[in-house]
From TrEMBL:
Residues 9-23 have a biased composition (Basic and acidic residues). Residues 1-30 are annotated as: Disordered. It comes from the Bacteria. This is ATP/GTP-binding protein.
Length: 108
């Protein structure tokens, strides 16, 4: 008796279509914002690394395992990537660039 083959013959595994990688398991798209093209990737909560990030939209922490958005300029590098809450990224045009701080917070 010959061994059993569980996969179909003649088919090979296909390579991933996205050359930017599926490191975080999210779908990537391009958006225009502030006159620049931005790459935007949705990050699933289960696939994000165990790091905390600070959202530039609301200045609050994004806890590990929370779904969020990673955005960076088209011609930016790894250091230009920013992690946003999805709602903050969607409301980025309605928010002011001024960060609200308490009276006793340092002004730097």
């Amino acid at each position: 008796m010959s061994p059993r083959h569980n996969r179909a013959r003649g088919r090979e595994k296909s390579a991933p279509q996205d050359d930017h990688g599926d490191r975080y398991g999210g779908a990537q798209r391009t958006e225009s914002w502030q006159g620049e093209e931005w790459y935007v990737r949705l990050v699933a909560g289960s696939s994000s690394p165990g790091k905390r990030y600070r959202c530039p939209g609301c200045d609050q922490e994004i806890p590990p395992g929370a779904p969020h958005v990673v955005a960076w300029p088209e011609y930016g590098g790894v250091d230009d990537r920013r992690h946003w809450h999805k709602a903050c990224w969607n409301a980025k045009d309605r928010r002011t660039s001024r960060v609200q701080r308490s009276r006793n917070a340092p002004r730097y």
